[in-house]
């Protein structure tokens, strides 16, 4: 269980640091005239992530599960996701945000993983939402939140982001 607490604690701290970084980027970008799009759905993304950690912790503790049967595979997937996360954040640099913040006149970033993938950070989140619970045999959390995350991203978030970026071009 120590490994569970350490890993989940690491991810939660990582998320909190990302929120601080995003807030800093948001303030700077808005001071340059950036606008926020899709604000109405942001609360649902935050809620999904909070409930994910609650569900993961509850499932692992309730079932007193240690590492799952294929834990090494899921650990490798999780670590690959972390490398891709750092690469995506570094590629966007001061433009990275947890919200949809667009700066009129700015060029769309096409370096790093953005050369090949339109939304690499969403792939990272999808990998984590599946791999982190499965690492500990919490298949219910993996199933429920993988589906919920996919629906939220594919039906709401990505279309809102694409619309905001399209409006930026016009």
How would you describe this protein?
With 170 residues, the chain is mainly α. It contains five helices and two strands; from the N terminus they run H-E-H-H-E-H-H. It has helices at residues 2-31, 39-62, 71-92, 120-135, 139-169; strands at 35-37, 100-102. It has a two-stranded antiparallel sheet. Helix 2 runs antiparallel to helix 5, helix 3 (71-92) runs antiparallel to helix 4 (120-135) and helix 4 (120-135) packs antiparallel against helix 5 (139-169). The longest helix has 31 residues, at 139-169. The N and C termini lie far apart (52 Å). The mean pLDDT is 94.
Draw up the topology in text.
Blueprint (H helix, E strand, L loop, with lengths): L1 H30 L3 E3 L1 H24 L8 H22 L7 E3 L17 H16 L3 H31 L1
Antiparallel strand pairs: 1-2
Helix pairs in contact: 2-5, 3-4, 4-5
Summarize the structure.
With 170 residues, the chain is mainly alpha-helical. Helices cover 72% and strands 4% of the residues.
The count of DSSP E runs of length 2 or more, i.e. the number of strands, is 2
- Fraction of residues in helix: over 70%
Strand order of the largest sheet: 1-2
What is the C-alpha radius of gyration, as a whole number of Å? 17 Å
| Biggest sheet details | 2 strands, antiparallel
Average of the residue pLDDT scores: 94
Unreliable sequence segments: none
**CA distance, first residue to last residue:** 52 Å
What global shape is seen?
A: elongated
Strand content: under 5%
Order of helices and strands: HEHHEHH
- Described by its quaternary structure, the protein is single chain
Provide the structure class: mainly alpha
